[in-house]
Amino acid sequence: MSDTEDDQFHHTTVKITILGEPFTGKSSLCQRYLSNSPRAPGGTTHGAEVLAGQCLGLRPPVPLHLCDVAGNSLSTGMLRNYLYASDVVLFVYDLSNLQSFDKLNVWIEKVKEIFDEEPKKPLMALFGNKSDLEHQRAVRLSCVKQLASKYLLENFKGSARTGEMVNYAFTDLIARVLGLSVPSSHVTVPIKLETELELTKDAAQPDGVPTSPLIMNRKTLRKIQRKASSSILIEKYTDNVRFCIICNYLGKIIPALQSRCTRFRFAPLQHSQIVPRLRDIVEKENVKISEDGIQALLELSGGDMRKVLNTLQSTWLSARNVTEDTVYTCVGHPLRADIDSILTRLMNEDDFGVCFKFIQDLKILKGLALGDILTEIHTKIQRVKFPPDVLISLLIKMADSEARLASGCSERIELAALIAAFHLARQQIDITAIANS
Ligand SMILES: Nc1nc2c(ncn2[C@@H]2O[C@H](COP(=O)(O)OP(=O)(O)OP(=O)(O)O)[C@@H](O)[C@H]2O)c(=O)[nH]1
Ligand SMILES: [Mg+2]
């Protein structure tokens, strides 16, 4: 944007007047928008309060005046003064209170009458507040649409309590007044879903071929899931919209939705699939990485490319050199050398106290968790040639130890139990050897 354009917008203050019945949440909306916090319990508004602020969703920020008019001002002669020079008039109703919506007809007619002689008409919009009480909805969606189309009003629904849609609605209205486009970061699907889907339905091809895919992420889906009718919504638009839900945990999607979907599971990536991409990124980003660093990333990722890149990034930021040591140190995972020395002590150290002190000191020095040590030892132990019954009892004891750790048992006690388990295993091996000889 040029400097001249910049200046032009710097000097334009947008005035938004907020009207509606008492208790619909007008003051809460202003508070939510200007300070992104819920309103502390406070009394009703008297007359009108003008609040100054800025719309930070647009660049450069737009100066604002929010005129929060008391719900009982409809019949007072002051309404004309409050509305003076308004660029936007936002009519707020409580979607759990039908009367607050019905009364809007009177409010709108009154505003139209006031602006009848004015050359400049404000942009008018509806805001259905308290969407967090959607389950107590008393105002039918079709009635809202009817009112919006009757008076050509913009239509929003949200909640001053949760902040849903508040920022978007204000930014959108201000952008319209100034003839700007809303930044894409402010465009969220859920609230406009109905409208968007209807548009796509209109645009459906005559042969019924689906025209529009709708890919939802976790956040969008969560919002839809809150609505009791989410599965009905999918069924309703299935003719012309293909819904694609992407998630990590299937269990987090309600059964009603799951039963309407075909499930595709993607296996973890093979090392051969990860390495070329990783090398490409490393080369383009000029990251210094060693071969054992790559191996360490692969080991820790468990086939998850996102984990590979996150670990790569944090290691690079903390050490500026990606090697096996820096990777393991960065994520707080035990080094291979540490595990080897721990295992050597467990297998050979006869003095219980010395062995305990060695592992405990190493844990403190390197900040290792016993759970991680157990996991690593568990993989290594299976490669040691123990007699089968010794190995079985050792594995069972290690599994018990891990379960106790997960349920919050003391690490010191569990470390002692681990050393004891190895002592017993070694005694069993000695007894077996004597018996065989
Ligand atoms: N559940 C819920 N309650 C809300 C929401 N917004 C406001 N409220 C509550 O509604 C009540 C009225 O809020 P106000 O912001 O004072 O309402 P108002 O429209 O300014 O009322 P007047 O100033 O009397 O015209 C308060 O108890 C708020 O906590 C919302 O989004 N959800
Ligand atoms: Mg108020």
Q: Helix-strand pattern, N to C?
A: HEHEEHEHHEHEHHEHHEHHHHHHHHHH
Quaternary state of this entry equals: single chain
Gyration radius (Cα, Å) is 32 Å
Separate helix tally: 20
CATH superfamily heading of the largest domain: P-loop containing nucleotide triphosphate hydrolases
How many domains, as an integer?
Answer: 4
Which cofactor or ligand species appear?
Answer: guanosine-5'-triphosphate, magnesium ion
In short:
By secondary structure, this protein is an alpha/beta fold.
Can you put this structure into words, describing what you see?
With 437 residues, the protein is of the alpha/beta class. The protein has 4 domains: 3-182, P-loop containing nucleotide triphosphate hydrolases (Rossmann fold, 3-Layer(aba) Sandwich); 186-258, no CATH class; 271-331, Helicase, Ruva Protein, domain 3, CATH 1.10.8.60; 343-436, Zinc Finger, Delta Prime, domain 3 (Up-down Bundle). 52% of the residues lie in helices and 12% in strands. It has 20 helices and 8 strands. The strands form 2 sheets. Strands 2-3-1-4-5-6 form a 6-stranded mixed sheet, sandwiched between helices. A two-stranded parallel ribbon has the order 7-8. A hairpin with a 6-residue loop joins strand 2 and strand 3 (62-69). Helix 14 packs across helix 15 (324-331). The longest helix has 26 residues, at 411-436. It starts with a helix and ends with a helix. 25% of the residues are buried. Guanosine-5'-triphosphate binds at residues 22-28, 39, 44-45, 70-71, 129-130, 132-133, 159-161. Guanosine-5'-triphosphate binds next to helix 2.
